[in-house]
């Protein structure tokens, strides 16, 4: 078992518990914006926030950060709840919506105006940007900055009542237009928007910004440690400023590095382009790094949680090898997934000395890693399918599978020796392998102790279930999709061969009717999961991962 990597956030919490900064409480939150589906990066944040609460006997809220009516919807709220639950976490009765705080936030804004700490600005959005200055140049104060408290109160009230068009006024915090941190140069607190909100309808036509909303939502909910990604480090002074000016309960914001994975993208912008432009079939396409995509692909919640634990949390951004994620699901499924024999590139094999109408059932082990999973009986007959790869007419040295004159073991079955082949007269391609079998070798070994190195899997033709198999590769051909040059189009790196569909493949009959999300190890081939596209007459299996582990520390 691996040792969990050090976690600087736990050090901070331990210290706060020692000094009693928040008494003996640990209270975190996971704050998604319901404007898209969750991805593996969000899973890291979910595991971290819910995991810390669990570990310290604390609490974790699920809070929808829903202050932008243009992009949010109920559909996403539902999907996010489902995904968090599927990952194995429970917010119990602690589900909150920032949009429920609009009234209180408005009161807080009025309080800041009264203190002379906020003002209504009537510059255009472009002018506001222009006046902000740059990293090397101080900003310029707006001519509206010194409006009286009375005038600000009246204008803000009228903004709320819907008397002004969008973009005509904003409410800004009055901090310092020469502050070295641009976020502190009189940041916008409220904007006018007439788009109805998915929960609040037309109650409001002014909407608070992330910076003003987030710290106060944390404060209202009594959060102790507000964990967010590194981009918000520069926003922390503002987080603290609002809470200090208002003199309210003050949680601690802690930033950690966001997860980046090789050969994929984890930004909603890129992911939605993949969906909209049809590069994938939807948000739940098994190639997508979304929770729904991973789930449909066949990933288990346990594997995703294990992955999140292994990558740990850091203060520096980095790129995690997707092979580690694959390694985690492989480890999990190796212990749990029942084995099955499925031939994905079929070649017919006929045993010429096996009676034509005979069939027998051979005992096969369900999982060599777990004897408790027992055995099953697999039908065997004269005509079988084997993998094309398991036969070579002119084999190189050290090829231990089937070749003219060579003998192999049929898994759980008999030894067979290739005595002839049938070829397609037009192409010369081998279309059938003719073998003899040794009846003394039932079960896979011979009384005379002769050595057979190769073991291959097979499926009886008469009993086979024809199935569709979908093989997936990485979505992108480039490992580092995070640090693209600005003028570099990410579409250039989309892997044109990320999906390969094989049909018919042949499965042993025990797989017939397995429901979606059933996972198997197809012996010698990989781990597979039943896709919801499956129909009774045509089951569909997604390849979760191959058997070969490419991850190394
Ligand atoms: P995106 O860039 O995909 O839109 P976001 O940060 O805008 O992501 P939110 O819904 O606001 O999406 O995210 C909810 C929480 O998940 C936030 O606390 C955010 O910090 C965290 N989160 C999002 N992406 C990652 C990531 N790649 N790694 C770690 N945490 C993440
Ligand atoms: Mg976002
Ligand atoms: Mg966000």
Keyword list:
single chain, alpha/beta, Rossmann fold, 3 domains, 7-stranded mixed β-sheet, 12 helices, 26 strands, binds adenosine-5'-triphosphate, binds magnesium ion
List the helices and strands and how they pair.
Blueprint: H1 8-19, E1 21-24, E2 27-30, H2 40-55, E3 59-64, H3 74-87, E4 95-97, H4 102-114, E5 118-121, H5 125-131, H6 149-161, E6 170-173, E7 188-192, E8 206-208, H7 210-220, E9 225-229, H8 236-246, E10 252-256, H9 268-276, H10 291-297, H11 301-311, H12 322-336, E11 339-340, E12 342-343, E13 346-351, E14 359-365, E15 375-381, E16 383-387, E17 407-410, E18 415-423, E19 430-438, E20 455-456, E21 459-460, E22 465-472, E23 499-507, E24 519-522, E25 526-530, E26 539-545
Helix pairs in contact: 2-11, 7-8, 11-12
The chain binds adenosine-5'-triphosphate and magnesium ion (MG) (2 copies).
Binding site for ATP: 33-35, 39-45, 229, 258-259, 266-268
Enzyme class: ligase
Pfam families: tRNA-synt_1c (PF00749), tRNA-synt_1c_C (PF03950), tRNA-synt_1c_C2 (PF20974)
